[in-house]
Amino acid sequence: MLELATEPRGDYGYNPAKISWELEMDQLDVQTKIGLVVVSASSISELRYPRAAPPGVAFLTSRMMLEEGEGIDALIKMEGNASRAVGELVSAKVDSVAYCCTVSGALRGMEGDRQFCRELEDQWGTPITSTMLAVVEALQHMDMKKIVVTTPYPDSHHVAERAYLKEAGIEALTMQGMGLESAEGFASVRPQEIFDFAMDAWKEYGDEADGLFISCMNHDGMAAAQTLEDTIGKPVVTSHSATLWSVLSQAGETEPLPGYGRLLAEPRADRSKNATNAV
Q: Fewer CB atoms inside 10 A, N or C side of the chain?
């Protein structure tokens, strides 16, 4: 209901200062803004995360151009856009930033990746995680020392990722890829296909493994994580679930998120600036 003052004033015959608004407006309710730096051709993170995130959490995106061919050399060249992409997100006052590319982080190695994030944090003053840093933190948090790894990649992409995991004290018992070579191909794999491929990889190593890791930030393994966990009885971490777990923690969002595996179903530590400064 809208009530208008009876005292005339101005061009429209009423006093705007005396209007009483009782209409309900569709006001945006955003408490936390998460920045995503994504590869230009990627799409899954922006589509999956809003469906999984807590109420009041919004995702803003900046892209880095990956030149045609999308090979390792192109990924390395793409990294020249990192500071620009983070700076754009920081200008929108995001609370934390996720650098959403598994392979580029693997190519840096764990210490190089940590230094990469630290330098961007120092430059822009905002907490930043990379996917691979988030993955090893999540695997360590879940006490997953021996894992089965599945990816959409060709085998050539596995070398750096296996070395990164080893540097973190995590043994990949097997790394099995679908042999796809484009972002479009990675994103096109349905969750049921991801589930089936992971179960095939799990058969031989499941008894020895502590859990399963599904790699790639343009591959919707997060949609299959809960069903896989229910089936194998051990934890399942994906590039997406680990990155979301870390970046929400850095932004101070600690509430559990059921339905995507036990990593997100547990409360998270508050690693926001406010929590850190309060210690």
A: C
